[in-house]
Amino acid sequence: MKIGNIEIPEFPLLLAPMEDITDRSFRQLCKEFGADILYTEFVASEALIRNIEKSFQKLNIEDTERPVGIQIYGHRIDAMVEAAKIAEQYKPDLIDINFGCPVKKIAMRGAGAGMLRDVPTMIKMTKAVVDAVKIPVTVKTRLGWDSESLIIDQIAQELQDTGISALTIHGRTRAQLYRGTSDWSLIKKIKENPQINIPIIGNGDINDGKSAKNAFENFNVDGIMIGRAAIGKPWIFKEIKHFLKTGKIMPEPSISEKVETAKNHFKKSLAIKDGKKGFYEMRRHFALYFKNLPDFKSLRLKLLTSTDENEIIDILNTIREQYKDL
């Protein structure tokens, strides 16, 4: 797969942009486990043009993450153009436009998936952003607003014609949020359209090697984007690549390996976050790193409430020792 001048290995796996998840600490971890393209947390265009410091922190990337994209969202074309120019100054490999976020406070303001109800503005905005920057621009969106407006097959070529370098499609509507199952049939239809010549990346319900293999073989996508399935399981990229290469399921990491991964993630998080934020944003990850352990309630509570670095390291060491025979 090729996005602009970015060459991606066969069967590419991409880390989806996720708010409060895909910060530098998590991105670096996913890269170590084999993710081919990383994305920042999505960034509000309005926050960038108003110089909100928190949003600028999301733009920081490191060379070890490359190729990496910065994703932006908004409902005003001029703000998105300015935000894209600002993001470009942080030297990402690409800019991604978020036309897929279903969260109410974003979509109901006409941004994210809300743009699926205003296709003319979507197309104008995309074209304006493409023309404003010198690096590849990609788009991530959904099938449509709801089951009565499955418009992705109608707008895919229009988006392509704006000059974007790739299109990622989440196989759900905005109305579905993250419920139900992802429908890849329309993604396949777009990929098989002879008028489409940019990479088509599928997203939704890829949680192991078998589902990834099915997506590549039966829906003909150029790449796969993985989101929620990577939270608390950054080794999913290594797991999927192992299955695609060998046809065999990679053994689950041992408790000791999971503890070391969690420690590594935690230390990276503290290194890049101010104050207690590094602790707070690790809590969702900690809960999922060890979600299936039996009789884990008391240790889990300590892990998710402590704001002392040494105490958390001690708790992680206790987990390794207490569950070493699992």
Q: What general outline do the C-alpha atoms trace?
A: globular
* Helical percentage: 40-55%
Order of helices and strands, N to C?
A: EEEHEEHHEHEHHEHEHEHEHHHHHH
CATH topology of the largest domain: TIM Barrel
> Mean pLDDT, rounded to whole units?
95
Uncertain segments are none
Account of the protein in words:
α6 runs parallel beside α7 (152-161), α9 (209-219) crosses α10 (236-246) and α13 packs antiparallel against α14 (297-305). Strands 3, 4, 5, 6, 7, 8, 9, 10 and 11 form a 9-stranded parallel sheet that branches. Strands 1-2 form a two-stranded antiparallel sheet. The chain contains 15 helices and 11 strands. The N and C termini lie far apart (40 Å). β8 (137-142), α7 and β9 (166-170) form a beta-alpha-beta unit. The chain has 2 domains: 2-246, TIM Barrel (Alpha-Beta Barrel); 255-322. It is globular and about 55 Å long. With 326 residues, it is an alpha/beta fold. Helix content is 43%, strand content 13%.
What's the layout of helices and strands?
Elements: E1 2-3, E2 6-7, E3 13-15, H1 24-32, E4 38-39, E5 43-44, H2 45-49, H3 53-57, E6 68-73, H4 77-88, E7 94-99, H5 104-107, H6 119-132, E8 137-142, H7 152-161, E9 166-170, H8 185-191, E10 200-203, H9 209-219, E11 223-226, H10 236-246, H11 255-272, H12 277-280, H13 283-289, H14 297-305, H15 309-322
Parallel strand pairs: 3-11, 4-6, 5-6, 6-7, 7-8, 8-9, 9-10, 10-11
Antiparallel strand pairs: 1-2
Helix pairs in contact: 1-11, 4-6, 6-7, 9-10, 11-15, 13-14
